[in-house]
Amino acid sequence: MINKNDFRQLKNNLQAFFHMYDPSNFALLYSIKAAIALLICMLSAYLMLDSKVIIFSLFACVFIFYMNTFNAKNMQKIIILSIFAIISALCALLIPFLIDIKLYVFIPCFIWVFIVNFIAAFNSDLQKIGIYITLLVMAMMISASLNTFYPTQSALAILHGSVIAIAFRTFTLYTYGSYTRRSFLMLLNNLIYMSENITNDNYNHWQSIFVSRVDEIKKLFASKSANIKDTSLIKNQEMAVFYLLKCEEIAFTLLSLRLYFRKNQHNKYISNIQEEIIFNLNELKNIFLDKTVNLKTINFTRFKDLNTFPILCECLDVLYYKFNMFKLGGMKKLEFKENSTKISFKALKDNFNLKNKYFRFSFKVALATSFSMFLAIFFKIDHGIWIAMGVFTLFKESINSTAIINKSTIYASMLGFALGFLLIFNLTANKHILEFILFISYFACIYFKHFPYFLSTVLIMFNLVIFFAYLGLDFERLILFRLADFIAAFVIVYVFSYIWPIKSENDIKPTIQETTKNIQNFLTSIINRSKYFEAENSVLLSIKKLRNLLDESKNKNSLIFEAIIEINNLCINLNDYIYNKHSKVDLKLDTDIKILITRFEMLRKASDDLPFYFYEDVSDKFLSTDSKIKYFLEQIGKRQDTLYKFLISKNN
Question: What is the Cα 507 distance to its own chain's centre?
């Protein structure tokens, strides 16, 4: 029997879980929109299309909504989705040809899969639609192997579902002002969670979420749709961007404070300041709730009067200054611009070689997928195309990630199948009930896409069971075959991963080099006072990549990772202190920062076995007379020494 306290705790845990992955209900609103589009697609398909091809209209509709993270905006996005619809429809017309060539289908399969993966070197959006075109083509080939296939009607069905889905994706269920208000409340909540966990490892999780959400909002402001004005919330877009950048600045300052807070987490003054920071962040949320903001500084003032942690006090002074700036608002006009990548013959030529990582990965995936297709047809494996589909979807870049993700996929598949069987066996054969459950399961697949991978995979497999049961096929037998297909696909993927094998541990050193290069750019941005946020975001992304590689390879060398984290924190502190106390970089400081930049260059040369000169004792080389600036520079230099010893040891 669950008592009230247990129920309340369960409710709070569920709310926290959903808030973590969908804090402002954007995924829920998007899924509702997708569900409405799917419902209209189903009803109109029943009236307009042959019942044998309705499923392809629904697949096209669902796939378009499942591709919900594009870099392209506005008309470009519509064009890309239209390309998906047109190529998919053309492929439907080619299905009879692919069936007729039988064993030789592995040749066009290899060429197509290679192109789909190789295009990622230039445009991730095109790769995304290529992946879903491939899945749709494989679904049509499976259908053709089961029943008579109608290419023209299937092509029209795909266009029908695509047009409806694209039409619904051109409008939103919320206004720009509502989006902006909820976005800043969401970001401030993330900053609160970062502050609450600043002394433990959960901080990294919330920081990662914050960075990804800031990037999403920047993309909105970079699009033309962001020109809409919302006088009820923020007077103009420039003010909205100001608040966004202030959120970023606060996040960077929290990152720089983390080192001090972790080392002194049992100090009662530090604990009181942590609570005060959380209180002030909660107060800043009142700006977007049309309430009065009342910031507190009493605990910080008491701590400052002690004069026991002067460097920490300077960092806190910067943070509280940013709180006040956030409260007062800003009038400086700022803007974001999207970086665009053009496909050129020279770029294609440069990437089309055996040393290029995109070429190698594309070749492996294409070879494994076409091999599984050849295997299925040659040995006349019942519905063996499912194996090829499994290989195509399960292939990952490194052996480590392949093993980790695919192991999770198998467990999730088994659970999803079990839940589907359990539900079907406890239902009558009422087709209307199955239609309702199938509709709800499609909604869940779209909504939970960005939740943990295990959960989203469970729902996809559950949906597959309901789908087979709805078609009236021998779904128990088919589902067991599908599970066997996934296991066979996993084996094929694992074997082919050893062609030009990539292990996560092999990427650790290059990623450290990439991170040091980004930190070098960060220091350059401090001198030039330009592209500061872009440089810091690049550092954070490379740090995240390094953390993932260390986790995948089970590397326990935390000393190097901590050194990189601390260098980044010290660079943020240095930047904040310079521009709040000195306003600019003088000639001496310019020289000192360039010493650190040169040392980063020497670190990379040392790791590449190139001629270098790395002077280990750097403290007597600095010219700055400001003791706090000199402290930051010396601490960065000491951590550079740690990186140097690691990189040299790897070369020996």
Answer: 19
For 121, the token pair is 């070197």
- For residue 110, pLDDT beyond 90: yes
Report the 10 Å Cβ neighbour count for 551. Answer: 12
Q: What is the rounded CA–CA span in Å between residue 392 and residue 132?
A: 11
Euclidean distance between CA atoms 158 and 56, whole angstroms: 6
**Rounded Cα gap, residues 287 and 329, in angstroms:** 10
Residue 167 to residues 42, 85, 154, Cα–Cα distance (Å): 15, 13, 20
| Region at 329 (left for phi over 0; alpha for psi -120 to 50; beta for the rest) | left
CA distances 505 to 151, 166, 375, 550, 589, Å, are 48, 42, 33, 7, 37
Distance between CA atoms of residues 445 and 402, nearest Å = 22
- Contact status, residue 447 vs residue 31, Cβ threshold 8 Å: yes
Residues 6+ apart with CB under 8 A from 596: 523, 618, 633, 636, 637, 640
DSSP per position, 168-190: HHTS-SS-HHHHHHHHHHHHHHH
Q: How far apart are CA 48 and CA 153, in angstroms?
A: 11
556 φ, ψ to 5°?
A: -100, 10
Question: What single-letter amino acid sits at 485?
Answer: D
User: Three-state DSSP class for 386?
Assistant: helix
Q: How far apart are CA 536 and CA 518, in angstroms?
A: 8
Q: What would the 3-class secondary structure string for 590-638 be?
A: HHHHHHHHHHHHHHHHHHCCCCCCCCCCCHHHCCCCCHHHHHHHHHHHH
CA distance 336 to 222: 5
Other C-beta atoms closer than 10 Å to the C-beta of 147 total 8
Residue type, 18: F
Global pTM value: 0.70
Residue identified by tokens 């040659």 is 378
Higher pLDDT: 222 or 356? It is 356
Spatial distance between the Cα atoms of 502 and 486, rounded to a whole number of angstroms: 22
Q: What angle do CA 88, 89, 90 make, to 5 degrees?
A: 90
Helices (H), 22-105: 26-48, 54-66, 74-100
**Which run of H or of E encompasses 402?**
helix 399-425
The half-sphere exposure of 565 on its side-chain side, counting CA atoms within 13 A, is 19
Residue 142 CA to residue 152 CA, distance in Å, equals: 17
Residue-wise pLDDT tens digits, 358-400: 898 899 999 999 999 998 888 877 667 888 888 888 887 765 5
544 CA to centre of own chain: 11
Q: Is the dihedral of CA 204, 557, 607, 630 positive or negative?
A: positive
Q: What is the number of other CB atoms lying within 10 angstroms of the CB of residue 264?
A: 15
225 pLDDT above the threshold of 80: no
Q: Tell me the C-alpha distance between 557 and 565, whole Å.
A: 13
Please check the confidence at residue 338 and state whether its pLDDT lies above 50.
Answer: no
Task: Return the bridge partners of 234, or none.
Answer: 230
Closest CA to 379 of 191, 102, 35: 102
Report the C-alpha gap between 644 and 652 in whole angstroms.
Answer: 13
Q: Are 629 and 610 in contact (CB under 8 A)?
A: no
Helix (H) or strand (E) holding 495: helix 475-496
Answer for the pair 319, 274: CB distance below 8 angstroms, yes or no.
no
Q: What is the mean pLDDT of the chain?
A: 81
Closest C-alpha to 23, from 209, 165, 170, 200: 209
Nearest residue to 20 via CA among 177, 179, 194: 194
* Dihedral over alpha carbons 539, 536, 560, 360 (to 10 degrees): 0
Query: Hey, what are 339's tokens?
Result: 């970086």
